[in-house]
Amino acid sequence: MIERDSLHRFLIEHTNVRGEWVHLDATWQAVLERGDYPPVVKETLGEAMAAVALLAATLKFKGSLVMQISGDGPIGMLVVQATSERTLRGLAHFEGDVPPGDLSARFGNGRIVITIDPGEGMERYQGVVGLVGASLGEALRDYFERSEQLPTQLWLAADGTAAAGLLIQRMPGPEEDADAWNRAVTLAETVTREELLTLNAQQVLHRLYHEEDVRLFERDPVSFRCSCSRERVGDMLVSLGADEARSILEDEGDIRVTCEFCNAHYVFDAVDVEELFAARDKPPVKPTRH
């Protein structure tokens, strides 16, 4: 039986190989409900959702990981965000017909930007590379090679029902089994799209690594959640400046903002806008000494 909206970490014992497996169901459906995507875009966005869930699971921090792919082809931009709370959101922008084929057919000349934001005022990390490879898994392998991070390989699959993926990484340090990484990659290369979409973590790992000593960790649940809020939209309006906000009010009567990720609607009238800027200009209250 497939596990819904789940992440599993695993280790191949006595080797430097670790991995992650993910299967997205309601989380993926929540994204599809908020965007009308043709099949090729749907598949690409679903694979990206699985990939970002896997990549975020390898990090030990409180914050977010964002992957953005942009190009001059039919899919102009794709963005997926995962948080350390195992939440996901994503969207894609496209124009016209998006042909099947490799990444260049879908994105044209493009690039991948991965941003890791640890939050709490800590410094962000950002890696940028050209979009290379026939599939998103190949492009991310190239990203890790170019950014000199841990050797990492991904296998991804998505359709209109589910999105799933498998990731393995080669950890640093002394190795008991020098051939373990090559063997793990070779075996993982045999996984099929159907197996990723229809089997659970234990079944996939047994299918691939039944001759290895694999330790499978407990399930981490994954869910869709958007981080937008009225307060954040208000901050965005303040950043526009009072003159710009009032100009929009004069033209439109109110300011309406729709979140592209979740379709939440926010409306600010003239009173709301004046309160935003009054709060910004108000001097901080000094503590009272008793």
CATH topology of the largest domain: Hsp33 domain
Percent range of helical residues: 25-40%
Q: If classified by CATH, what would the architecture of the largest domain be?
A: 3-Layer(bab) Sandwich
What is the average of the pLDDT values? 87
Low-confidence stretches: none
Tally of structural domains? 2
Overall SS class: alpha+beta
| CATH homologous superfamily placement of the largest domain | Hsp33 domain
Shape: elongated
**Percent of residues in beta strands:** 25-35%
Number of helices: 10
How widely separated are the two ends?
65 Å
Let me know the largest β-sheet: 6 strands, antiparallel
According to DSSP, the number of beta strands is 14
Q: Can you write the helix and strand succession as a string?
A: EEHHEEEHEEHEEHHHEEEHHEEH
Over all CA atoms, what is the radius of gyration?
22 Å
What top-tier CATH class of the largest domain fits best? Alpha Beta
